[in-house]
């Protein structure tokens, strides 16, 4: 097997890259300048070595604790619980939230043999011990597993003196009622926003 | 800039990879096992070092001359001229052609400042000197630049004792007349295949 073949094989294992795209990328690399390919190879090589989960919240970081955990301007009374560290980056793009995060590194999924003990739930409870945290926002995905995990956490966090909330479910901005699914419409009705109190 | 940021920046310069896919790939690599990322980095690093253009036909190869040029079972009387070395791999997947190839490494494109002297046309003429080659098939793309290059080559190859042909233009297999463009239909009419001689 030639280097080109192995490269195509490896590239096509990346998410969103099929055999044809892998070939296209490989040929692009062959024609690219040496500096670019060396830099790319270097990045990939050192990625896992340099980027590690933050020991506090689980966010991907080069410094420990991560930029968010060590930022004194962030609101330390609120913790937003997400499934994966990459969800933190997504929430950060909104610039809507100024609190801290906690990445569970997964969801409860009995079918895949993943129980609460496989997630960083113990660490989350530990973070609440100091009494600084007043609110926990559950930002797991609106899927069966995400819902199960949120439900589990709600029960676990009862009587711990923290308010628990969940991301709102409803129509996506720019969406169209005609194309929304039945469940989303039902949830948007149930969680309707009062506009006037008359 | 962190390694993650630079990696995403570099990945999003690859063809077909936008910022979102680059992020997804980077997170996939972070979660992937060490062996895979090391192998991928290694492939990219050594690709340009090991894979070089064949000194005869310009095909990408690790051995020189390439597998096709040195295969004694190939028909050495026919040379198929393509724009890019990667086009050879595409033609090879058809298993229809058993001759040799010649990659021009580009097309004549005055707007980009690319003239015949920037392509491997001189080398192609040299290959015809031995008199072994009897037919040249022009497989440049059916674009303005590909057509210009083909026309240039037809004129250049006149009176050199070789037959010159071009890939057929017409409807793609599985295509639909309704969705074919005007030019393609016109070319498929002009190049219609006789089925009976009555």
Helix-strand layout with pairing:
The structure is a homodimer of 198-residue chains.
Chain A lengths: L2 H9 L7 H13 L2 H17 L1 E2 L6 E2 L13 E8 L2 H9 L5 E5 L17 H8 L6 E4 L5 H14 L5 E4 L15 H9 L8
Parallel strand pairs in A: 3-4, 3-5, 5-6
Antiparallel strand pairs in A: 1-2
Description:
Chain A is of the alpha/beta class. Chain A folds into 2 domains: 7-50, Orthogonal Bundle (Helicase, Ruva Protein, domain 3); 72-166, Dna Topoisomerase Vi A Subunit, Chain: A, domain 2 (3-Layer(aba) Sandwich). Chain A is 40% helix and 13% strand. Chain A has helices at 3-11, 19-31, 34-50, 85-93, 121-128, 144-157, 182-190; strands at residues 52-53, 60-61, 75-82, 99-103, 135-138, 163-166. A 4-stranded parallel sheet of chain A has the order 4-3-5-6. In chain A, helix 4 links the parallel strand 3 and strand 4 (99-103). In chain A, helix 1 (3-11) crosses helix 2 (19-31). Chain A is globular, with a radius of gyration of 21 Å. The interface between A and B is large, with 43 and 43 residues.
Provide the structure class of chain A. alpha/beta
Residue windows where pLDDT falls under 50 for at least 5 positions of chain A: none
Identify the CATH architecture of the largest domain in chain A.
Answer: 3-Layer(aba) Sandwich
**Fraction of residues in β-strands of chain A:** 5-15%
Radius of gyration of chain A: 21 Å
Largest sheet of chain A: 4 strands, parallel
Residues in helices of chain A, as a percent range? 25-40%
Shape of chain A: globular
Distance between the termini of chain A: 74 Å
Task: Write a concise keyword list for the protein shown above.
Helicase, Ruva Protein, domain 3, 4-stranded parallel sheet, 40% helix, 198 residues, Dna Topoisomerase Vi A Subunit, Chain: A, domain 2, two-stranded antiparallel ribbon, globular, 13% strand
């Amino acid at each position: 097997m030639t280097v080109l073949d192995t490269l195509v094989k490896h590239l096509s294992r990346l998410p969103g890259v099929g055999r044809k795209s892998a070939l296209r990328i490989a040929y692009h690399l062959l024609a690219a300048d040496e500096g670019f390919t060396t830099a790319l190879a270097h990045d990939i090589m050192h990625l896992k070595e340099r980027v590690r989960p933050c020991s506090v919240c689980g966010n991907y970081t080069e410094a420990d604790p991560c930029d968010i955990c060590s930022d004194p301007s962030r609101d330390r009374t609120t913790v937003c619980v997400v499934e994966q560290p990459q969800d933190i980056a997504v929430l950060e793009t909104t610039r809507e939230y100024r609190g801290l995060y906690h990445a569970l590194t997964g969801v409860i999924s009995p079918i895949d043999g993943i129980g609460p003990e496989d997630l960083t739930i113990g660490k989350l409870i530990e973070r609440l011990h100091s009494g600084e945290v007043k609110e926990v926002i559950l930002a797991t995905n609106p899927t069966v597993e995400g819902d199960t995990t949120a439900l589990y956490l709600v029960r676990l966090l009862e009587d711990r003196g923290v308010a628990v909330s969940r991301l709102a479910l409803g129509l996506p901005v720019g969406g169209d009622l005609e194309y929304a699914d039945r469940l989303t419409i039902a949830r948007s009705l149930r969680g309707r926003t009062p506009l006037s109190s008359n």
